[in-house]
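We treat protein structure as text, and this decision shapes the records that our systems exchange. Such a record has a labelled line for the sequence and another for the backbone structure tokens. The record that follows is passed on verbatim for readers who wish to inspect the format:
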Amino acid sequence: MNTPRPLEIAVERHPNPTPADEIAARLTNPVFGRVFTDHMVTIRWTEGTGWHDAKVEARRPFQIDPACAVLHYAQEIFEGMKAYRGENGQISLFRPQENAKRFRNSAARMSMADLPEELFLRAVEALVDIDRAWVPGGDGSLYLRPFMFANESFLGVRAANEYIFCVIACPVGPYFKSGKSAVTVWVSDQYTRAAPGGTGAAKCGGNYAASLIAQTEASAHGCDQVVFLDAAQHRWIEELGGMNVFFVLDDGSLVTPPLSGTILPGITRASIIELARKEGLTVNEAPYSFDAWRDDAASGRVKETFACGTAAVVTAIGSVRHTDGEFSIGDGGEGEVTRRLRTLLTGIQRGKVADPAGWVWNVKS
């Protein structure tokens, strides 16, 4: 039996790449998600043909038909991941296999084409390799955005027969404003992010679009992020607008909401759970209510709270605002457990701490 040959990714270098001195200037203090590298990867899928026409090419706008399915029925998914430059110059990714698996799960939930994990990884690595000059050193990183959307031109409610997978990248610094040791969050009692049976566990654009009104509400109250409660009872804490959440109790244990199908299975979340347990900390994946959070913060039972995700990494929550008032977590700054886990995680990501679990993926040149 003949094994099918893997799809080859053709490389078409940018005819006028950004000069080195200009790249260096843009890497000085990049605004998150505003500065982009020279290239992108595109791969097309059509019914009956499968994946084809894979290439690295100069970053450019897409030309789509007004009837393009994604514009009308929102078949779209994406991932968020980072490339890091170690002190020795080695460029690496953090657990990209998990992004590839989650991408497939999101595609299945949205009834989209199934992208093999191996092809996802080769596409990401190809972009990082050709744009490696854009990977910052120090505390910066290259944020990678693999995404897929329905590209068929038709008006009708069904799964599309054509898709485009693409990877773009942008150099980034901190997600939140520099100098903040902890952020302030707003607890929404009016809007919900996801409901049982919905798309909460998929990384699709619609989830984020639905969250924006709550994020606007949070900003109006002087907050950095919004916290969502469950859709059924408006009681149980689920996650932030773009991050998972952990609570550190006075006995040293951690609590985080369980993956019930309404919460995104964060790769940073999973890594924090594993690292904390290896550090001898107890982690309970269990429901935790907003009332308990407020009362436990007042009594001192909750010592720390932090959010985590690819963009924000590990970020302390210092103050919580809601319709009936406000309360602080601990002294309002970053706690010892939060700092310890953040330092350990970022140390592994940047090659400063041993990686016994094999999470770091070195990019070949």
Q: What stands out?
A: The domain at 182-349 is CATH 3.20.10.10 (D-amino Acid Aminotransferase; Chain A, domain 2). The CA atoms of residues 100 and 152 lie 24 Å apart. The longest strand covers residues 162-172.
